[in-house]
Specification:
Layout lengths: L3 E2 H8 L5 E2 L2 E2 L6 H17 L34 H12 L3 E4 L3 E4 L2 H9 L2 H10 L5 E6 L2 E5 L4 E10 L3 E11 L6 E16 L5 E13 L5 H35 L1 H9 L6 H13 L10 E2 L3 H9 L1
Parallel strand pairs: 1-12
Antiparallel strand pairs: 2-3, 4-11, 5-11, 6-7, 7-8, 8-9, 9-10, 10-11
Helix pairs in contact: 2-6, 2-9, 4-6, 6-7, 7-8
Length: 310
């Protein structure tokens, strides 16, 4: 069977441009740009490496007199593990950079959405089946992951809080340039806020946003910080927004290509057998009558980039 374009199918059947409850889906309408967004955002979501593209030749840090945020107003500190509570509070309070994406609303069952967010190996393996990616990720503890992007960025991160409406992740990020002459160490607190609604037709919807607090711990940042800070902030804003798009993109693909999603996950030995079975059951419960029995296809990034330049 010829592979069907994911974007032709989605644009034709899932109503991406219609409004629900007065709110238009914020997914970018141009299908080619969407694929570029997803390619870039995959590394952000999987590694929480929001700074991976930011410092190819220098290091930054906090201390520019930015407005401090009360951590207790951002996360439920009393519900975090005692071992990580103060560190999460420090990153939020003394963040070098802070960005929050605009809310994105998309059709998805809440339980399926939480399944994808709670187990990052699921969306990563699905994406790697669609596109070549050097990203590596492994689960090293029940709530902890270790990953690398193949370009000098590595991270160890863990879920310190998980609930239906809020996920809090603490990451230890490290970047070393290919020649080893530039190093960046940073801690990142990544928040995913979610809400669950129904469309006027009764279809389950998820509304979420992504928020990042970044505290750079590298020394020697002051010589560059004031000059490059505006550039860093713009890039960070883009990456936080695109991380949210990536989550909604993978949710849509699972719903619209259930056979493909189940086949990919069933074949992955790095995913726990119980998790694989739970995922298959979840997908089957949410199978739609009009779902495609085929496999999505994607555009190459260089082709998509050339389209964007026109």
């Amino acid at each position: 069977m010829k592979s069907e374009s994911a974007w032709e199918w989605l644009r034709g059947r899932s109503g991406l441009s219609r409004s629900v409850g007065g709110m238009e889906f914020s997914m970018i309408r141009n299908s080619r740009r969407l694929m570029v967004v997803a390619i870039r955002a995959a590394r952000v979501l999987v590694l929480v490496a929001t700074l991976g593209w930011v410092w190819p030749g220098g290091s930054l840090g906090a201390g520019l007199g930015a407005h401090r945020v009360d951590p207790a107003q951002v996360v439920p500190l009393d519900q975090l593990p005692a071992a990580s509570r103060e560190e999460v509070a420090e990153v939020i309070r003394d963040a070098t950079f802070h960005r929050q994406s605009e809310p994105d609303t998309f059709p998805c069952d809440g339980n399926l959405y939480l399944h994808l967010v709670n187990e990052p190996l699921l969306p990563l393996n699905l994406w790697k089946d669609l596109a070549d990616s050097p990203v590596q990720l492994r689960k090293i503890a029940p709530n902890r992951y270790q990953g690398s992007d193949g370009s000098g960025s590595t991270a160890i991160w863990e879920f310190v809080h998980r609930s239906a409406r809020l996920h809090v992740m603490l990451a230890y990020f490290n970047f070393v340039s290919p020649r080893g002459n530039a190093r960046v160490e940073a801690r990142i607190v990544l928040l995913v806020h979610a809400d669950y609604v129904r469309s006027s037709g009764g279809e389950p919807m998820v509304r979420h946003d992504v928020e990042a607090f970044v505290k750079v711990d590298s020394k020697g940042w002051k010589t560059l910080a004031r000059t490059v800070r505006p550039v860093v902030e713009r890039v960070l804003e883009d990456q936080v927004r695109e991380a949210g798009y990536f989550i909604s993109l993978m949710s849509r693909l699972v719903i619209n290509y259930p056979n493909w999603a189940c086949q990919v996950v069933s074949s992955r030995t790095d995913i726990d057998p119980a998790m694989r079975k739970k995922f298959r059951d979840m997908v089957e419960r949410n199978r739609k009558p009009g779902a495609s029995s085929g496999r999505p296809s994607v555009l190459r990034e260089d082709t998509a980039m050339s389209e964007r330049r026109r």
